[in-house]
User: Which sequence fits this backbone?
């Protein structure tokens, strides 16, 4: 996967379309539970109302609007 196409900046521009009149702001950032993966909440106040998205950091360094898949126990021979 090309991580430059999944940068946080590009995803914020894609989903929130910020402008100088309608800027986007990071309102929360932290790590999730036991796996310590990062997430960021970004919001923008549009004329239609508040838009807010959570973006999740994946193991390959990319950011997505869906959380990474957690590894599950497997049995092997």
Assistant:
């Amino acid at each position: 996967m090309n991580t430059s196409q999944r940068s946080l900046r590009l995803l914020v521009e894609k989903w929130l379309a910020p402008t100088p009149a309608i800027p986007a702001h990071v309102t929360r950032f932290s790590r999730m539970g036991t796996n310590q993966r990062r997430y960021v909440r970004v919001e923008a106040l549009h004329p239609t109302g508040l838009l807010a998205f959570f973006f999740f950091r994946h193991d390959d360094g990319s950011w997505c609007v869906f959380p990474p898949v957690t590894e599950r126990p497997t049995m092997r021979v």
Observations:
- The chain has one domain: 3-64.
- Strands lie at 24-32, 37-46, 49-57, 63-64.
